[in-house]
Each structure stands twice: as structure tokens, then as C-alpha cells.
Write a structure and sequence with these properties.
Layout: H1 15-28, H2 33-41, H3 57-66, H4 70-82, E1 98-108, E2 117-119, E3 122-132, E4 137-145, H5 150-154, E5 167-170, H6 177-185, E6 189-193, E7 200-205, E8 214-222, H7 225-230, E9 235-242, E10 247-253, H8 260-268, H9 271-283, H10 294-318, H11 324-334, H12 341-345, H13 352-359
Parallel strand pairs: 1-5, 5-6
Antiparallel strand pairs: 1-3, 2-3, 3-4, 6-10, 7-8, 8-9, 9-10
Length: about 375
Amino acid sequence: MGQHHSDRYVKHFTTENQLTTLLYAQATGKDSLRAIETGLRVQGNSWYHLGITNVARNTLAHANTKRSWEVFESLFYVLLEKCQNLSFGTAFSFQNGLYVVDSSTVDLCLALFPWAQFRTEKGALKIHALLNIRSQIPEMVIVTDGKVGDITLAKMVDFSVFPKGSIFVFDRAYLDYSFLYRLTQAGHHFVIRRKTTTQIFSLRKDRETVGKGVLKDERVAFSLEKSQIDYPKNLRLVTFYDQEHDQTYEFLTDEFRLSALNIALIYKQRWQVELFFKWIKQHLKIKTFLGTSKNAVLTQIWVAMIYYLLLSFIKHQTKFAGSLLELSRIFAEVILQKVHLIDLLSLTPKTLHRLRSRAGPQLQLF
């Protein structure tokens, strides 16, 4: 926070106060400044020791508009360092890091958010994420306007900072030959769906098709001269039939060591990032906003990401047996109650009423 000087000339509502208030809004699902103000005021004896002296909606609105969202982006990455070693287990036992890259669009009303023009009559932001499959933590989050293409953003990422040998999974929007070649030059591997327009020719069958659903396993190269210049190496083409969805997929990869079935299963992990986007859109406040300025919107998105990290960190460190959604629901019910963390994590949605009956009317925060 200090590097952004976000509390310069501030006497009362500090960056910490703003963060605390917005985390409360995320935890309780508040979708308006008035709802936040009312929710805190009716529990005034529960948050007095947090250093908050003013919960007026005008004060929060001013902070959301004027205090730079970049301070919360920086805090997200500070917290991310604490979450680097989280692991919730995967179906894969190999040592390579496994990451999925994708984006999701947040629609905005152009009349209220004119700075976010996407199309003629539509506004939008785009959240780009790089999800670590083992930890289920987004190790990269970038928010852009809706016009920024997925591959345009991906080309700006420094993939050399990731452990060598990592495998990155992409959908067809990222099928850019020079980009994929640079990824391999950085010591990484990729699995990506083939576009129907991709012109390749088969060099030979690389191995026998082993594994349920594997139809072909071929060594291929690009046909066009420009494509060969952009990606001058051979690739592997795995053709896989998904019986569950009655659909045939073609995957391009530079990874020749793993089985064809593992390549298909790796690509299947791409849906984890879809689930991540679905989760944050359904259970965090990033579709309705507390302000209409760009700064207010970005502030809310980054605080939502911070809250996601905090939930994930608590779930992992405490070995909470329930889902992340169950944990978030428990927090929503007791966020301003004085509850020991161990007792809190032993609760279930069905036993929350027992806590309330024991606490009595004077229960206080922390």
C-alpha cells in the first residue's frame, strides 16, 4: 500500500478501512452502497475496533472512485505469493506444472459505463486468468476492456517466470503459431485444440493408439510456408472421441512423451478455468457494481479476487472438508460474530443456528 501512497492526505477512511468494508460486502453479498451502510450500522458494536470510524455510503463511494485500484491489484499479488504452494490434488501424478489460460467477459450497460465500450450498443470488461490446476489458484489475473483479444494479451505475458517444463492448456482462440513456438523456446509445453482451418499434413503415425477414446496419434507439420516459418518444428496431433458428449476433438501439442490419453485428459482440465469463472461470477460480486467509474469497477473486481484467495488459503491451511462454496456461505452468516476459527470450520449450514443461539444478542466481531 505504501508504494502507491494510497493513504496520503487521508485522515479517516484509510485503504485498510476500504478493503475491510469491501471484503465485508463480498462476504455478505451486498450489491449496493446503501446495503453496505445499513448492514454495518445495525451491527455497530461489532466492528468498532477495526478502526472504521465512518461507514457512510458517500465516503465509500468517494474512496472507490478516487483511490487507485492498483493498490488492490498489488495486494492480490502479495497474497498470491502466500498461496503458491497450495494443492488440492489432481488426477495427474506427473511433476510438470499444469496451467490453463482463458478469459471471460463481464457485460456492462454502456449507458452507465460509457468508458467500457465493447460494441456499438454494448459495454464489457474481460478478465484474463492463468489458473494453476493443482492449487486451483489464478496465478495471473489481468483485467482489460472487452476489445482486447485473448491471443493479444497472451503474447504480452512473460512465460519464462514459470517453472520450466510446465504444460499450458489453451482453447482455439490462442492458436497462433509464433506464440506457441516462443512458448516451447521458453522450455514449456502446450496442448491446444486444432482449428478446422489449420492446414497440416501427417508425417507418420507416432505410436499405436492406446487408451479409451483415442482414435489417432500422429506426428504432423504445418503445410503452409509461413506457418512453417512461425513454427518450424513437428507437432503431435491426437484425435480423441469423447463418448460422454458424443464429440470428436483434435489436439495439437509439442509433448511426445505422454500417452495420447493423457494429452486428452490434460485438455479436459481446461474446464477447470471455466468452472473458476462460473464460480466467481455466481458467488462473488463482479457482475453488479457499487460505482460506475472505471476505478470503482476495477477496485471491486480486485477485492473480489483477494477474497477468493483468502477463502482458498483458509480452506487449504485448515483442511476444511467442505467445498469453497460451503465455506463462503458459513463466512457470510458469521462474518461479524466473535467465533474461533476452529469452531467456525466445524460448522455446517445445518448447525449455524446453534452458534447463533449460544452467542446471544451481544456477539461481537473477532
